[in-house]
């Protein structure tokens, strides 16, 4: 990268990650309330180094009981195998989980396995399933859904 004027590639990468991959507004308040009551797992199609940097930079690691990063497990969403792997790693049944994602393709695969799903719909796309546009409505929807689940619940 020095040939285009960047002398420190690590600094450029960190600046990119800080500037363009931001934390959604309302996440911290949502996570403070619900991560104490329910087990959160981060399932990310990401580079391990980037994922570790971002969760550390945003100081959100403590909200998650586990983090599954695609580079680390050599699988990625929407491949069915990553969902099966995640269920085994968490030691839970599909019925105990609610999967929240911003990709309909990912949700459809999770639904095939019996996992309940919610589209985090930042872009206002048409979707027939459960959909929320922000963390306030997500919290209310989860409260209703969790009442129907038994045992330890995972998001």
Topology (SSEs and partners):
Elements: H1 9-20, H2 27-34, E1 41-44, H3 48-57, E2 66-69, H4 70-73, H5 80-90, E3 98-101, H6 104-112, E4 116-120, E5 131-132, H7 135-146
Parallel strand pairs: 1-2, 3-4, 4-5
What does this structure look like?
The chain is an alpha/beta fold and 155 residues long. The chain has a domain of 103 residues: Rossmann fold, CATH 3.40.50. The mean pLDDT is 88.
CATH architecture identity of the domain at 24-45 and 66-146: 3-Layer(aba) Sandwich
* Strand order in the sheet with the most strands: 3-4-5
Number of DSSP E strands? 5
- Provide the helix percentage: 40-55%
> Poorly predicted ranges (pLDDT <50, ≥5 residues)?
none
Shape: globular
State the CATH superfamily name of the domain at 24-45 and 66-146: HAD superfamily/HAD-like
CATH class category label of the domain at 24-45 and 66-146: Alpha Beta
- How many helices? The count is 7
Largest β-sheet summary:
3 strands, parallel
Mean pLDDT: 88
State which percent range the strand residues make up. 5-15%
CATH topology call of the domain at 24-45 and 66-146 = Rossmann fold
Structural classification:
alpha/beta
């Amino acid at each position: 990268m020095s040939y285009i004027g960047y002398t420190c590639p690590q600094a450029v990468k960190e600046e990119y990650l800080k500037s363009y991959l931001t934390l959604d507004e309302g996440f911290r308040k949502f996570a403070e309330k619900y991560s104490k009551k329910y087990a959160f797992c981060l399932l990310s199609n990401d580079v391990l180094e980037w994922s570790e940097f971002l969760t550390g930079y945003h100081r959100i690691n403590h909200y998650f009981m586990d983090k599954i990063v695609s580079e680390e497990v050599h699988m990625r969403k929407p491949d069915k195998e990553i969902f099966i792997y995640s269920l085994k790693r968490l030691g839970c049944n599909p019925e105990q989980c609610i999967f929240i994602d911003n990709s309909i393709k990912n949700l459809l695969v999770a639904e095939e396995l019996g996992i309940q799903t919610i589209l985090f719909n930042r872009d206002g796309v048409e979707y027939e399933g459960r959909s929320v546009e922000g963390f306030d409505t997500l919290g209310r929807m989860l409260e209703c859904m969790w009442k129907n689940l038994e045992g330890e619940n995972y998001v």
